[in-house]
Design goal:
mainly beta, Jelly Rolls
Length: 89
């Protein structure tokens, strides 16, 4: 699976991503988060793999935030649940 999601916030704003759950198969499933429209994983600001009990929020500045989830099909976990908040400069 290779899914890409965009969050367009309409200007250069700070976006805070808060995680409710992260559960991936470590070293096989990944969540990459970055800004702009180029979703190349080498340009990601944050990378997650494995499970996290209470991850810290991430903060990104830009008009577009992207999420790219790459997963194999061998083990199923529930993935990720997020919330976001946008503030002006």
């Amino acid at each position: 699976m290779n899914c890409i999601y965009f969050l367009h916030v309409g200007g250069d704003f700070w976006t805070t991503i808060t995680f409710k759950d992260i559960s991936f198969e470590r070293n096989y499933d990944y969540l990459y988060i970055g800004t702009g429209i180029d979703t190349d994983i080498s340009k990601a600001s944050f990378t997650f793999t494995g499970s996290y009990d209470d991850p810290d929020p991430v903060h990104l500045l830009g008009s577009t935030v992207w999420f790219r989830m790459i997963s194999d099909d061998s083990v199923e976990n529930y993935g990720v649940s997020i919330a976001w908040h946008v503030e002006g400069n």
